[in-house]
Structure to design on (269 residues):
DNA sequence: ATTAGACCCTGCCAGC
DNA sequence: TGCTGGCAGGGTCTAA
């Protein structure tokens, strides 16, 4: 469900309901997630929420004593609800707020996590992450230099968080289509011009999806329960066997690095 | 050091 | 109708 635009959409959705209020207490119904829910989170009592941030696909909830680092995995979501709504089967964690609402984390596959850190710069999950895709550090020049000598196929290479964060399976296929680059090419075969174009398209596609409230494929909903609308704009993702919107050639699919990859053989070279 | 693969977990859908 | 296999938006770990 969640790629970077979905996380950013969630961040924006929950922010006004949380900043300036307190986390009164935390209810953990299922601690067995990717990693066990951190003890410090379990123990929170009446902690003021200072800010809601994001790094890569991690939500950062700043309290006066440290940060909650949340990840939604493959199937997770967070919603702000009135406290009295009964939790469902996969509603694993509730952050009960001082305003009568609750930040409720739902995650059928339980690949998500809720970790704690006193020091963001020293947090294990954040320490080795590459630049943000929408920041200035992620440039054509940066991508071109990193690609020199790389034999890995471009698409799985783009999804490596040490290179750049936040380019997940949907947006990797989409941005390569927009750049007219075949996902199977070795990363080292990128020209400088292609690297410039690819970076520009990654930024454009991600920004556009954030504007649209993310991509709703199955069940992604914004924090207020509305779907995202970017799915309507997908060019290749999930469209195997359907005609390319540009040239009409049938979209193909291939597994690269265990992940389905979609492309148009005629448009992409 | 780089790269490919298995794995964590549940739900859903197509095909038999 | 009911079963089975394959697949799913992510990330980490191991082993070649």
């Amino acid at each position: 469900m969640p790629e970077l635009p979905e996380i950013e959409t969630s961040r924006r959705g929950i922010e006004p309901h949380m900043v300036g209020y307190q986390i009164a207490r935390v209810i953990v119904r299922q601690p067995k997630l990717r990693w066990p829910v951190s003890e410090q989170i379990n123990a929170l009592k009446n902690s003021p929420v200072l800010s809601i941030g994001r790094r890569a696909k991690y939500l950062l909830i700043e309290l006066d004593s440290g940060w909650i680092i949340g990840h939604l995995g493959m199937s997770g979501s967070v919603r702000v609800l009135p406290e009295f709504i009964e939790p469902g089967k996969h509603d694993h964690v509730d952050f009960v707020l001082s305003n009568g609402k609750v930040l409720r984390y739902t995650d059928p596959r339980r690949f998500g996590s809720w970790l704690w850190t006193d020091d963001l710069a020293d947090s294990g999950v954040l320490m080795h992450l590459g630049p943000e895709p929408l920041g200035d550090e992620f440039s054509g020049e940066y991508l071109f230099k990193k690609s020199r000598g790389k034999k890995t196929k471009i698409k799985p290479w783009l999804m490596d968080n040490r290179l750049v964060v936040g380019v997940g399976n949907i947006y990797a296929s989409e941005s390569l289509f927009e750049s007219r680059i075949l996902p199977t090419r070795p990363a080292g075969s990128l020209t400088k011009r292609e690297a410039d174009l690819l970076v520009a398209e990654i930024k454009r596609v991600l920004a556009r999806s954030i504007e649209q409230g993310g991509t709703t494929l199955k069940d992604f909903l914004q924090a207020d329960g509305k779907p995202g609308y970017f799915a309507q704009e997908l060019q290749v993702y999930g469209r195997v066997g359907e005609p390319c919107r540009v040239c009409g050639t049938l979209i193909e699919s291939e597994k690269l690095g265990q992940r389905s990859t979609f492309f148009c053989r005629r448009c992409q070279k």
Summary: The two ends of chain A are 29 Å apart (CA to CA). Chain A has a mean pLDDT of 93. The domain at 140-263 of chain A is CATH 1.10.8.50 (Helicase, Ruva Protein; domain 3).
